[in-house]
Amino acid sequence: MRNFVFYNPTKLVFGKNTIDKIGEYLKKGKIKKVLFLAGGGSIKKNGVYERVVRSLIENDIEKVEVWGVRPNPVLSKVEEAIEVAKKESVEAILAVGGGSVIDSAKAVAAGYYYEGNVWDFYLEKVRPKKALPLYTVLTLSATGTEMNGNTVLTNERTTEKFAFGSIVVYPKVSIVDPEVQFSLPEHQIVNGAVDAISHVMEYYFDGAENTELTDRIDEGIILTLIETTEKLLENPKDYEARANFALSTTLALNGISGLGHKGGDWASHELEHAISALNPEVAHGAGLAVVFPAWMEYVFTKNVEKFAKFGENIFGIKDDNTEEVAKKAIRSLRNWYKKIGAPITLKELNFDYSDIDNLTEIACKHAPFGELVKLEKEDIRKIYEIAYE
Amino acid sequence: MRNFVFYNPTKLVFGKNTIDKIGEYLKKGKIKKVLFLAGGGSIKKNGVYERVVRSLIENDIEKVEVWGVRPNPVLSKVEEAIEVAKKESVEAILAVGGGSVIDSAKAVAAGYYYEGNVWDFYLEKVRPKKALPLYTVLTLSATGTEMNGNTVLTNERTTEKFAFGSIVVYPKVSIVDPEVQFSLPEHQIVNGAVDAISHVMEYYFDGAENTELTDRIDEGIILTLIETTEKLLENPKDYEARANFALSTTLALNGISGLGHKGGDWASHELEHAISALNPEVAHGAGLAVVFPAWMEYVFTKNVEKFAKFGENIFGIKDDNTEEVAKKAIRSLRNWYKKIGAPITLKELNFDYSDIDNLTEIACKHAPFGELVKLEKEDIRKIYEIAYE
C-alpha cells in the first residue's frame, strides 16, 4: 500500500427532499448572492429549478442566472460565466445540474480570482490559489464531481479536452436527491454507470499492490453499480436502486476508491477525452465503454493476476488458468456493456477507420500517459484499432 | 436507504515515516505552541516520542507535556490537562497515542473554551460550540477516533462511562504511521480487531434496509480485519497487513461504514461500557468480544435475513435454512474471537455471576437503548446472563 493523504471537506447531503434545503445551507454559509449555473433547461421540466428557486427565496438569497452549459462543457461558456460573476459580485457559485455544470462551476469559482485566462489551470501553467465557495445540486449521478476537486473542460478553439484538480474547488456542500433522477432517459443511466465503473477501474488497475481493503471497497462499488443499473433499466422509479446507484457514483471518485493506490492509471480517460474532443456529441460514458475494454485487452498481460481477481470477484469467473480468467473478465465486461445498451466500438460512435489517425494525434498531446503501462504513440494507435470494431 | 449528511473534515496522513511530518502540519496550521498529551510512556520506548519532538523542534513549535492518560481514560486526567492548557495558553492539542489519548484530547480541546465542567458534554447537558484545533499521531489502530468527532470517558467519581460526538472535535490532521505499531503486544492487535469489527457491526445490524453499497463496504472492512489480524499474529512486522489493518480500523468509524443507516445500534457498546466502568482493567475490545455475540444471540430473530447475510458473506456459510445460517454466523464469530485469543465470557474477565446485578444497574442508567431492539432492564440482564459462561 502506498502512502497517501486523504482530505475531502465536501459536505454531502443525501436523500429524499434534500434539494429543498439548498437555501438553508447557503444561508448557513453566510451567502447572500449566488451565480446560478445550469445546463439546457431540463431542470425546468422536472421541477428542480422551481424547488431550488423557492428555497433561495425563502432564505433571502439573490441569484444571477447563467444557462447553457452543455455536455462536454466548453471554455467559452465558462468565460461568459466568469464575466457575469465578476460584474455581479456574487459570493458563491450554485451549480444545478450534472457533471458538466459542476465541472464548469469549478472553473468559474477558481477563474473568479484569476487575472489571466482560466484555461491556464487546465494547461497546468498555474495552480489556482483561491476560489469562490461552490454549492451544488446534483441532478445526474455519474462523474463524482460533486465530491471532489476535479474538473474537465474542452477548449473549442484548440479541440483540447483537459482536466485539473485542486483542493480549492471542492464543493462546500453537495446535495444529492436521488428522486429527482427518476425522469432521466435510459442512456444517461447507462453512461453514468460506465463512467463510475471506469473511475473505480482506473484505480483498481493502476498496478498498486497490497490494496486489499480498497480492492474490496472498489469491488463493492462496481457490484452495486451493476446490480442497480439493471434494476433502474427495469424500473427507473426504484428509489432504493437509485439511491445505491447515486451513492456508488459519488464514492467512485471521492478519494475512497483510490486509497493507497498509485493515483490511478487514467490512460483510458485520456483516450476517451480525444474521442469526445473530436466529436462532442459522444457522451463521456459512451466513449469510456468503447475504449476501456480495449485498453484492458492491450495491457492485461502486465498484471494478469489483478485482471483475474476482477473476473472472479465481479463476474464470478472460475478457471485454473489465470490468463483465461483475465480474458473472460474483459469479455464479460464488454458483454455487460452491450447488454445495458452501451456502445462497445468506435464504429458504433460513427467514427471511420481513418479517424484513428486524428484520435491518435489528439491523444498524443498528453502522451506518454498511463500508470500500469506508459502508453506511447504506437500503443495509443493500437488501442484505438482494438476499439474500432 | 435513510437520508444522511456525510461531512468529515479530518485530513488523514497515512503511511511510512509520516510521523516525522507532524511538525510541518502544525506549522502549516500556524500553530506555535501545543499541549502534548500522552499515555504511560510506551512512546518513549518505540521511538515515537523522539521523532515527534524532533519534528516539533525543526518547525519551531513549543510544547507543554501532560502524561499519564490510561486505557479507559478518566475525567480527572482531562481536568488536569485542561488546567495546564489554559494556564499555558496553548494554541492546539497534540495527542500522541491510542484511542484513550485521542478521546481525552477531544475533551481537553472542547473543555478549553468551556466555563463549566467538561463532564457536562458527556451528560449531554450542553453541546460544545468551539474547541482548540486537535492534531493526532496514532500509535494503536483500534477505535477509529483519529477520524471522527466521538469521545468516550469514564468519570471515576460516579463510575459512569459516557460518550459524546461533535463536529468541533474532529482532528484537523491525523497521522497514521503503521510501522510504529510493529512493537504492539498481541492482545492489543486482538482488542483493536474486535473493537473495529464491532463498530462496523453496530451499523450493519441496526435494522436499516436497502443499504447494499454500505453492506459491501462493511463486509470488506470486516473481511480485511479478519485476514490481517491472522497475518499480524503470525508476523507483527508484516507492513502490508499492518497498513490494511490500520486503514480498516479508521474506515470502520469515520462515517463511511454507516452511510444510509439508522445511526447504528450501539446497544453492545452500552453493555460494554458498564463492564469496563465496573472493572477498568478490562480493555474495551475484550469487553466487546464477550458482549457482542451475546447481544446477537438475544436479538437475531428480529432480523434473521441480515444475520444470515453476514454469515454467508463473512464466513462463507451455506444452508437453505436462513435461521441456521444466522445461528452459525454467531457461532463462527465467537469461534474466531476464541481463535485469536479474545475472551468470550464474562467469567474469563473475572466477573462473578453476582456481578450481573451490578452490570445491569450501571448499564440501565442509559436504558432503554439499542436501535434494532430497544433493550429494557430485563433484556439487559438476559444478555449479560448469555455472556456469563
From TrEMBL, chains A, B:
<dbReference type="InterPro" id="IPR018211">
    <property type="entry name" value="ADH_Fe_CS"/>
</dbReference>
<protein>
    <submittedName>
        <fullName>Iron-containing alcohol dehydrogenase</fullName>
    </submittedName>
</protein>
<feature type="domain" description="Fe-containing alcohol dehydrogenase-like C-terminal">
    <location>
        <begin position="190"/>
        <end position="388"/>
    </location>
</feature>
<dbReference type="InterPro" id="IPR056798">
    <property type="entry name" value="ADH_Fe_C"/>
</dbReference>
<feature type="domain" description="Alcohol dehydrogenase iron-type/glycerol dehydrogenase GldA">
    <location>
        <begin position="9"/>
        <end position="178"/>
    </location>
</feature>
<dbReference type="Pfam" id="PF25137">
    <property type="entry name" value="ADH_Fe_C"/>
</dbReference>
<keyword id="KW-0560">Oxidoreductase</keyword>
<dbReference type="InterPro" id="IPR001670">
    <property type="entry name" value="ADH_Fe/GldA"/>
</dbReference>
<dbReference type="Pfam" id="PF00465">
    <property type="entry name" value="Fe-ADH"/>
</dbReference>
<dbReference type="InterPro" id="IPR044731">
    <property type="entry name" value="BDH-like"/>
</dbReference>
